[in-house]
Amino acid sequence: MKKIIIFLFLVTAYSCSDSKEIKPIKQDIKELVFASGQLEWDNTYNLTAQTDGVIQNINFEVGNSVNKGKVLAVIDNPINVINVNTAEEQLVISNQNVSVNAPALLQMEQNIQFAESKYLQDKKNAERYERLNQNNIGSKVEYENAQLSAKNSLSNWNALKKQYTVLLQQAKQQQISTKGQLKNNQILKNYNSIIATENGTVIRKFKNNGDYVKKGEVIATIGDQKKVEAVLNVDENSIGKVQLGQIVYVKLNTNKGKVYNGKVTEILSAFDTQSQSFICKVTFDEVITNALFGTQLEANILVGEKKNALLIPRNYVGFGNKVNVKDKDEYVIIKTGIISTEYVEAIEGIDKNTVLLPLKP
Fold first, then answer.
1. Residues with Cβ within 8 Å of residue 259, at least 6 apart in sequence
2. b/e sequence 104-113, b meaning 16+ C-beta within 10 Å
3. How far apart are CA 318 and CA 360, in angstroms?
4. Rg of the chain on CA atoms, in Å
5. Chain segment 10-23, per-residue pLDDT in tens
6. 40 backbone dihedrals φ, ψ, rounded to 5°
7. Which of 9, 129, 200, 238 could join 222 in a cystine, given CB atoms 3.0 to 4.6 angstroms apart?
8. Residues in Cβ contact with 16 at an 8 Å cutoff, skipping those fewer than 6 apart
9. Helix and strand totals (H; E) in the chain
10. How many Å apart are CA 299 and CA 295, to the nearest integer?
11. Are the C-beta atoms of residues 150 and 126 closer than 8 Å to each other?
């Protein structure tokens, strides 16, 4: 990356810079931060593989427009298909297990009916022995056995009814689990299809038919060609001067004869370690036709502007902002404003009538 510098643009040329004795002059001045960068498209995203397998049926090329939801390729992963088929078959069984004709439930209903019949019979027998006992007929042991049998039959009947409820609940839980498993497998199966998530144009294509891909690998890059922006790399020494809304002058390497105006619309807060700079994004004031993704560019961000600034050549300013004023025995210290490679803005210490001499060797 080019080293980013700050320079000044003067509205008119400095007329006295070659004279040994000079006077400061007032002129309009602009402070610009230089940055390199490239053109990018808004809403750019990577189309990635969501499963492992071999790519088949790719139906796109670089430059093609794609619509959201369009299937752009298919990944051959038979495991996902098998898992869906298996889950579908398991769901059929689960649905049968909660139906009125489920074998386990039918068997339990029969057991409940038998237990109910036995309880009614034992209850009737216990009531008979109850009447005999009240009339002091029969043995006490037979009476107690009849009462115990009725009690046990009632307990068994109630237990079977509870077992039926638990059995039905377990069958329903298994049905819910199987439905969930089927949905999960269907989602995984859908990952076999590579689908465009947003409208856009294919910028890059990384894979072809027959390529094996792993989950997470990028297949293509897609962006919105209608929304072009400049992505600038700004040096860390200059980023403090850049603010949102500032005017930016951009020259594309593909057309250096034209200057495009734009504005700073975003300043990323994190330092980009790859480019060793801070990233700013610029939106253009006009539509850029035939804007190729990745086009290199140079930009100047307008970070300051002054009218009638008092300027002197930089080689007339020494260390500590000292200048050699005519008829002065000692150097005069000035307060500086904007400083470029050629000029210095003098804010205090001299005026437009001050005569300056070159610095003493």
1. 249, 250, 251
2. ebeebeebbe
3. 10
4. 43
5. 433 344 444 589 99
6. -135, 165
7. 200
8. 22, 23, 25
9. 3, 18
10. 13
11. yes
